[in-house]
């Protein structure tokens, strides 16, 4: 009679963790709860702002996909076998953490205000939030464990939205282009989650692309009118969940399936109590920082109107020329359009010209079914801004609950000054930005600022504005020569459009 065969011991990566590791899991959970709680407290205004942007159909709603993909990537890295050496230096951890926390405080409290006009385009507060969480993790867990999740942290840095906006702009600015941008995030997250080596990561990325593109095609065919947020989230989230889950199940085929099947190592950083007050103090300081005010009034809500892309000239003026710029759809989404109308006064008015010549102004009207895009891209974005000094906007009441802004722009190269009045109004689903421009040269061939057009010129204007910020190259002592002309014309123009709407009803 033969002795019973003893079953072979399970592989090392399938052995059940010892009971002693439960304390490590509990401590890790407690530390993460503290980091999340302090970060939400520090950036509660940012969180509410992001929720409001998403609710109103803003392009920055893609950030939720970045957070989801980063969490899944971190979960994938967590089940990999731990390889860092058991070397720990709390002094280095604290020094690096302090540097990061101070940088987050400076970024959120100082640099954010410098780019107030481009807040939605840059969202530097999200970058500061990312830096705070990274630094707090280094303080509470140590530099080596955080480095092991370095790829997940790098993916989370995609909350900085400028590269995403440039990618969507290059692809045409449509809902499909926005979805393609989030599919890149999904592919990167899948590659990080399943990539034990580069070949496996490449397979994961390609698998997520196939799954995501399939869902995107189905949405475009059967649910073409879905919201921007649906295009941003549904294909990308489906792609990363399907691809990562499929590769995980294939890897564990024939073996017991457990979420965490490697041996759990104890936490390296044990003396963390000294870091808790540091993180808490910085979080309290960050919580007092208010999000910047761009100085641009909120769009006037004109209920029951149907904005026309071509405006009717007010009484005493006529339209001399009209031109359409369809390329603006790249910036303001499908259906976006820019119409330029040159309007000339029917009568002479010595108040506005010493020779009593009829004045001419240009009216640029941007109409978009994506109202949130108007706050994302400021009014000056479509124009050439190199070598131009722009004054601080001054608010003016145009009646009907409409608040406009007056400013002046000086071009030192051609020695021309432009005065501009702008305002935005919306009926809730369609929004218009109206910019009225007058030039201090009253001749018939006086040059007006031209919309740049094209991807390269638009990006050039974008980067020029960003590198200059709000305070550089600013006209600190502006003289708005045509303030009266623009104010009177703006009120009359608004009256004419609203009168048209009342007549149609």
From TrEMBL:
Highest taxon above the source species: Bacteria
Designated name of the protein: Uncharacterized protein
Positions of transmembrane segments: 25-43, 63-82, 94-115, 127-143, 150-170, 176-195, 202-223, 229-251, 272-291
For this UniProt record, the keywords arranged alphabetically read as follows:
Membrane, Transmembrane, Transmembrane helix
Please verify whether the record's keywords include DNA-binding.
no
Does the keyword Transmembrane feature in the UniProt annotation? Answer: yes
């Amino acid at each position: 009679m033969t002795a019973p065969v003893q079953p072979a011991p399970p592989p090392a990566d399938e052995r059940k963790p010892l009971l002693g590791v439960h304390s490590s899991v509990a401590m890790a959970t407690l530390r993460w709860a503290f980091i999340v709680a302090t970060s939400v407290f520090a950036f509660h205004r940012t969180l509410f702002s992001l929720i409001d942007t998403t609710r109103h159909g803003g392009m920055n709603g893609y950030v939720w996909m970045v957070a989801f993909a980063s969490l899944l990537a971190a979960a994938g890295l967590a089940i990999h076998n731990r390889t860092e050496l058991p070397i720990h230096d709390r002094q280095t951890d604290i020094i690096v953490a302090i540097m990061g926390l101070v940088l987050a405080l400076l970024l959120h409290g100082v640099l954010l205000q410098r780019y107030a006009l481009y807040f939605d385009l840059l969202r530097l507060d999200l970058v500061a939030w990312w830096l705070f969480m990274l630094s707090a993790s280094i303080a509470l867990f140590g530099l080596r464990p955080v480095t092991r999740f370095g790829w997940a942290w790098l993916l989370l840095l995609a909350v900085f939205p400028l590269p995403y906006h440039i990618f969507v702009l290059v692809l045409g600015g449509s809902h499909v282009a926005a979805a393609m941008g989030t599919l890149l995030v999904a592919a990167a997250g899948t590659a990080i989650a399943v990539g034990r080596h580069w070949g496996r990561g490449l397979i994961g990325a390609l698998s997520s692309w196939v799954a995501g593109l399939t869902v995107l095609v189905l949405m475009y065919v059967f649910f073409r009118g879905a919201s921007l947020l649906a295009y941003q989230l549904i294909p990308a989230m489906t792609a990363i969940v399907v691809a990562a889950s499929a590769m995980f199940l294939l890897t564990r085929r024939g073996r017991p399936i457990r979420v965490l099947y490697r041996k759990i190592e104890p936490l390296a950083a044990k003396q963390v109590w000294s870091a808790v007050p540091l993180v808490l103090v910085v979080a309290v300081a960050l919580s007092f920082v208010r999000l910047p005010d761009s100085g641009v009034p909120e769009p006037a809500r004109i209920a029951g109107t149907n904005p026309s892309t071509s405006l009717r000239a007010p009484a005493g003026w006529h339209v001399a020329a009209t031109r359409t710029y369809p390329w603006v759809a790249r910036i303001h989404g499908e259906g976006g359009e820019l119409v330029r109308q040159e309007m000339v006064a029917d009568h002479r008015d010595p108040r506005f010209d010493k020779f009593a010549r009829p004045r001419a102004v240009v009216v640029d009207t941007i109409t978009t079914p994506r109202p949130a895009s108007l706050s994302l891209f400021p009014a000056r974005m479509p124009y050439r801004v190199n070598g131009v000094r722009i004054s601080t906007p001054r608010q003016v009441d145009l009646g009907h609950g409409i608040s406009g802004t007056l400013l002046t722009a000086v071009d030192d190269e051609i020695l021309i000054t432009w005065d501009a009045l702008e305002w935005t109004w919306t009926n809730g689903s369609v929004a218009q930005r109206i910019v009225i421009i007058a030039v201090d040269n009253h001749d018939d061939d006086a040059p007006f600022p031209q919309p740049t057009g094209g991807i390269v010129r638009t990006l050039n204007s974008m980067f020029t504005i960003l590198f200059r910020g709000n305070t550089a190259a600013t006209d600190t002592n502006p003289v708005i020569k045509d303030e009266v002309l623009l104010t009177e014309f703006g009120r009359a123009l608004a009256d004419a459009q609203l009168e048209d709407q009342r007549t149609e009803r």
